[in-house]
Amino acid sequence: MGNFAPMAVNKTLFGNLRYDPETDLTPIILIEKGPLVLVVNPNSPYKNVQDIVAAAKAKPGVLTFSSGGIGGSHQLSAELFELNAGIQMIHVPYKSGSAALTDLIAGNVDLMFDQMYSAAPSIKADKIRPLAITSKKRSPLLPNVPSFVELGYPKVEVLKLARLDCA
User: Model pTM?
Assistant: First the structure.
């Protein structure tokens, strides 16, 4: 089974990858396809994306974002947002997405891009606050959360994919 990192990112990260995901694997079925959601701790002073951009521009390299590791969809979504918003933040990689989310809930990092299905229980329990999603339109699952496209960041569109492949 392959997801974002081994299918798209590893080819560019590792010069000596022993397989080519484009030619050596055949997709069988799409298992998952969905946007990520930018979330903050509910006690965070950041109530919307504009607050994050303003804070990051006022103090470049001070805001932190957690991820489930280097090169995954959590990190790359945040990097894409940084690039398109013209801001700089500090990446705090963890060994897993759940560890990154736990530290966000604890208030040890400022924000995180998480898969919507993973973040949904914590959003519903008011343990994290969603600010925006990485799709063109709002999600029916989070109808009050704007998309980055809607907020003026049309290039911040990320859909995490996972599929079952065979060699």
Answer: 0.82
Residues in the chain: 167
Q: 127 to each of 90, 106, 123, 164, how far by Cα in Å?
A: 22, 9, 6, 32
**What integer pLDDT is reported at residue 140 of this predicted model?**
92
What is the chain's mean pLDDT, rounded? 88
Core vs surface per residue 6-32: b (16+ CB within 10 A) or e: bbbbeeeeeeeeeeebeeebeeeeeee
The separation between the first and the last C-alpha atoms of the chain, rounded to the nearest angstrom, is 11
Residue 103 near residue 115 (C-beta atoms within 8 A)? no
How many C-beta neighbours within 10 Å does residue 114 have? 29
Please say whether the beta carbons of 132 and 151 come within 8 A.
yes
DSSP for 63-100 reads -EEEESSTTSHHHHHHHHHHHHHT---EEEE-SSHHHH
Q: Is the pLDDT of residue 167 over 90?
A: no
